[in-house]
Amino acid sequence: MIRFECKGSFNNKEQSWRGYITKLVYYGSHLEISIQLAEPITAVVCKAFSGFFVYFTHFESGFNLPSLFDIDGNAGNFMQMLDVKDAVTVANAIGKVGYFLSTPRRRKRRHTNFSLSEEIPF
């Protein structure tokens, strides 16, 4: 379980709370994130030509995101289907693990074959 801190302004009052990622699966091309809310939610995040795309399996809807780390902008998009606190929590969760998709993976090295006629160093 991954724990992260969330901050938001509700009714002109700054609040903070903890959010939890209960499941994180990195497939190399996309992430599957399960976030604990009043009702758990699963988000699938992947790269797209315009930035990133997040798909919520429970709601069968998705959003284009220019950045995974723009918490306020992403929370504004998520408020179309979630309440304010849940939208901020989901945006923080995506920002917390977004570095998996934002950095390229190292390529695997190819094993170089050698013939048996060559001398083995050991």
Strand content: 35-45%
Taken in chain order, the helices and strands follow as: EEEEEEHHH
Which residues form runs of ≥5 with pLDDT under 50?
A: none
Number of domains: 1
Q: Mean pLDDT score, rounded?
A: 85
The helix-and-strand class reads alpha+beta
**Largest sheet properties:** 6 strands, antiparallel
C-alpha termini separation: 45 Å
Give the radius of gyration. 20 Å
Description:
- Helices cover 21% and strands 40% of the residues.
- The protein is α+β, with helices and mostly antiparallel strands and 122 residues long.
- It has one domain.
- A hairpin with a 2-residue loop joins strand 4 (41-48) and strand 5 (51-56).
- The mean pLDDT is 85.
Throw out a few tags for this protein:
alpha+beta, 6-stranded antiparallel beta sheet, 122 residues, 40% strand
Quick summary of this structure?
The chain has 122 residues and is α+β, with helices and mostly antiparallel strands. It is 21% helix and 40% strand.
Give the SSE map.
Blueprint: E1 2-10, E2 13-26, E3 30-36, E4 41-48, E5 51-56, E6 61-65, H1 71-78, H2 84-97, H3 99-102
Antiparallel strand pairs: 1-2, 2-3, 3-4, 4-5, 5-6
